[in-house]
Amino acid sequence: MSQAASVLVLLIGILLFLSPVVLWVAAIAPAWWWPFAAWAVLVGLIALTMLGRRDP
Amino acid sequence: MTLSLGLLYAVGVVYLALLFGIAFAAERSRAFGRLAGNGWVYTLSLGVYATSWTFYGNLGFLETHGYLYLTIYLGVTLAFAATPFLLRPILRLAREHQLTSLADLFAFRYRSRLTGPLVALFMLTGVLPYIALQIKAVAESAAVLTADTPPHLLALTFTATIALFAILFGARHISPREKHSGLVVAIAFESLVKLVALLVIAGIALFAVFGGLQGLDAWLEAHPEAVTALYQPVLEGGWTSLMVLAFAAAFLLPRQFHMLFTENINPETLNRAAWGFPLFLLLLNLPMPLLYWAGQAAELTQQTNYYALGLASWLESPTLALLIFVGGLSAASAMMIVTTLALANMGMNYLSLPASLRERQGLPANLYRNLLWGRRIWIVLIIALGYGFYGLLQVIEGLAQLGLISFAAVAQFLPGLFGLLLWPRATRIGFLLGLGAGITGWFFSLVTPLLSNAGIWPQAPRLQELVAGGGLDPWTFALTVSLGANALLFILGSLLSRPNEQEIEAGQACCPREPVYASIDLPLARDVPEMEAELAATLGNMPARHEVQRALDDLGLPRHTRSRRDLRRLRERIERNLSGLLGPVLARMIVDQHLRLDAAGRSSLGESLRRIEQQLEDARLPLTGLAAELDALRRFHRQILHELPLGVCSLTPGGEITGWNHALTRLTGIPTDGAVGQLVERVERPWGGLLQAFLDSDDRQIYKLNLETRHGPRRLNLHKSALEVTAGRREGYVILIEDVTARVQLESEVAHSDRLASIGRFAAGVAHEIGNPLAGIASLAQTLPLEDDPGEIRDIADDIIAQTRRINAIVQSLIAFAHSDTPPRNRFEPVDLADLIDEAIRLTRLAGRKDIRYELDGLEGLTLLGARPKLLQVFINLLTNAEQASPADASIGIGAQKTGARVRITIHDQGPGIAPSTLDRLFEPFFTTKPAGQGTGLGLPVAYSIVQDHGGSLVAMNAPEGGAQFILTLPTGRNA
Question: What does pTM read for this prediction?
C-alpha cells in the first residue's frame, strides 16, 4: 500500500486518540476495554499498510 | 509470604547468567546470531521502551491518573504509524552516513562544534535519573518480597553486573557502527520475559481474585467507580501533552534510537516493527487495569506500584513472585544496558575525543584500542553516576514522574528533528537557540519543582508559579513553554541566519525530496597511498590503512586506482566510515584537513554534468514537471550518443575520460565503466597511447590510421573537436573514432581488381610490345651464325641484349603494377614525377592508342612522396580515361607546378568534356557512361581513393578551352 495509506491511518489514529473524540469518550465512560479495542483496530490498520511493502 | 534476600540474589544471578549465555550464543553461533535480523526479534528488542516504569510504575500512574497512563504507549503507536515518513527516513540517514546516536544525527545536520556536545550533555543529564529509577525499582521490588528495607547491596551488585554485561556485549567491537547481534537477541528475550510475567500474573489474578471474566464483570458492576476513575483524569487535562511526549520518546530516547536505528541489521524489519511493536505494547498494558482492580479487591497493603508482587505474595506462590521479580529485573536491566551504551557512545565522540584532540593536537595513538577502552570507561562512569542518582532518589516518590521528566527532555529535539527531515533551510544557529530555550524551559518547569518538592532545593524557582500558569496541568504547561520557546527560536534563528556550505549540503542530504549534489571538486591526492599517508598523520598508520582498505572494499575499488572519480568516491566513503567511528563532526574535520579537495581547480562542465547524471541515476527519485522532462531529454541524448555507430569519447581538459559510448566499447573491448573516470593515458594499450597522442597533436583528423590491436590490425579514422560551451573556456574534447578496416579492405580489393582489369587491357598491347623485340631477337639470332667478324658478332649480341632489356622492362612494370599494395604512410618514398609519367604513358600505350600525342610541361625536377606503384595506377587510370575521350590525332597535356609543399598536376584532353549531369558522379564506384561490358566504372574511383590515401586531392572539371581537365594535388617528396 502506498504512502497515502499510511497518512490516512495516521490521521485515523490522531482522530481516535488526539482529537476531542478522546474527551467525548472519556465523558461517556464506556466499558473499560474500549480504549484497548480502538488501539487494536489502529494496530490492525497499521499492519495492513505495511503488508507487502518492500523498502530498500 | 516473604522470600529471603539470598534467594533473590541467587535468582537474579541465574537470570543474568542466562542473559549472558543467550547473548554469547548469539554472538558465537551464526544460526542463532541470524535471529538478530529476524523481524520479530527486532520488534521485541524495541520492547526496551517498557522499563520498570511500565512493569511497576504503570499501576501507580493508573491509580493517580487513570487512563492517562495509556498515552505513554498510544503516543508510540502514532509515531510508528508514521514509519514510512518519520522512522524510515531517519533509518536511511543513519545507515547511509553511519550515524550511531542522536548526537551524531543532529551534529551531522546542524554543523556546529557545539551541537554534538550540547546534545550529549543534555541527554546525559536528562536520562541519568531514568537509569537511577531502574535501580530503585529493583531494590524496592526486593524490599517488597523480603518485607525489609531496600537492600542497597543488591542494588550495587545488580548495577555492577549490568555494567559488565554492557561492556561485554555492547562494547565488544571497536566502533559503534558494528552491530551487536548478541545484545539484540538478549534484549528481545527480556521483552518476552516481561510480557509473559505480566500476562501470567494477570491471568492468574483474574481467576484467583475474581473467578474469571464473569466475576470481574460482576465486581465492576458492584464498583462502577472503578471504571469511572479510569476515565475521569482524562477529562482533567494532560492527555495531549503526554501523547506528544510519548510520540517523541518513541524514537528520540537514547535506548529507542539505539535499538531502532543503530542496531538495526535489516531495514525491512522496520515494516514488521511498525505494527508489531504497538501490538506488544497493547498486550503489555492490557493487564494493568486488571492487576490494579485485583490488588484493590484483594486489599493489598503494598505500594500500588508493586501490586503484581503483592498479588503473588497474596497467592502465596514463591514461583510467581520470583517470576514477577525476574520480569522487573528484565525491565530494569534492558533499559540500563541499552541506555548506557547509547550515552557512552555520545560521551566518547562528543566529550572525550574532542577534548583529547584539543589537548594532544591529534587523536590518541592506538586509536582503535583507545576508542574501545574509552567507551568502556564511559559505560562504567554512566552506571556509577546512575547509582549516585539512585542515592538521591531515596527522597523522591513516583517512578512515573521521573520517567516523564526524561520524556520531556527528549521532546526538546522535536523541532530540530522536523527541521532535519522537512526544512533544508534550518540552520545550526536556529537549532542551538531553540534547544537552549527548550532546555531552560524544561529545567525550570519540571526539574526545579521536583527538586523543590523533594527538599533537595527548597528555594528552587517554579516557572509555572512565576508566570501564573496555574490553570494548566504541569505537563501541558511544561510542554507548552519549553517546546513553544524551542520551536519559536528555532524558526526565527534559522530565518535570521544564513546556512553555510556544509549546512546546505547536509540539508540536501537529509531532505528526502531532492537528489544530493555532492561536491564536484576533485581530491588533491593523486593515488590511494597518498591518501593513506595523509590520514595517518591524525589516525596513525594502522588505523589509516585499515580505514582506507575498508572503504576500498566497500566500494569494490582496486588499490592501484588513480582515477580522480574513484578517489573522490573513496574520500566520501572514508568520511562516512569515520563518522560511524568518531561521529560526523570529527570525521568531517579529519577528512577536510587531510584529504583536501582541489578547490582552486575547477572541474569542467562536462565533469559536473556527469556527476549530476550519476547522482540522478543513484538517487532514483521520481522527478516531476520540467525536471522530469529535462531528465527525459538528457536520457534521450545520452541514448543517441551511445547508439551511434561511431566510437565517441569525451574528455576533460585534464585528460579524464567523461564519456565512452557503446560503439567504442565494441571496438576497444573496454567497457564504459572501465574507461570513464580514468585518465586517458591510463587506458589499456594501444588505445590510451593512441588517444593521448592524438590529443597532443595538432591534427584534427587522421585518416586510415593503422593500429595493431589484440584483435588484429585495424584501420581507423579519427576526428577531434574541442568543446567550448562557456565563452572562451575549454570544457574538454570529443574524439570520434571510425573503424574503416572493412572499407579499406574493400577499397584494396577494388583497386586490385582495377589493376587486373588494366593489365587485361594491356594484354594485346603487351603481346605486341613483346612480340616486336622477340621478332628482332629471332632475326638477329638467325644472322649470328653467318657472321665471322667479331665486331659484327658483338654488335648483334648488344642488339639482342637491348631487345631483351626492353622485354624485361615491360614485364617488370607489369609485375610491379599487378602486385602493388599501399605501404604505410611512413614508408612512402620520393618518386620522380617525370619518370613516373613516362612509365604511365608507356603502359597506357600498350593497350591504348598510338595516335595520341602527349605534351609534357614542367615535370622535370619534381618529386612526389608516395607509393610508386599506386601513383602509377592513378596516372594510368587518368591517362586511359583521357585517351578514351580524345578524338583521332589529339594531344593530351600533362603539366605540373610546385606550390609550397605540394605539386599540382594537370591532365587535359581535347575530348568533348564531361557532361554536367555526370560531373558529380564521376568518382562514384561502378558509375560509367560506357555501354555495358565496356567499362567497370572503377578507374576514377580507385584513382580518387589512392590520391586521398596519399593526402592529396583529385578534382575533375571542364576546361575553358574545351575538353576535360583533371587536377591532382599531391605532397612533394625530398629534393623537390
Answer: 0.69
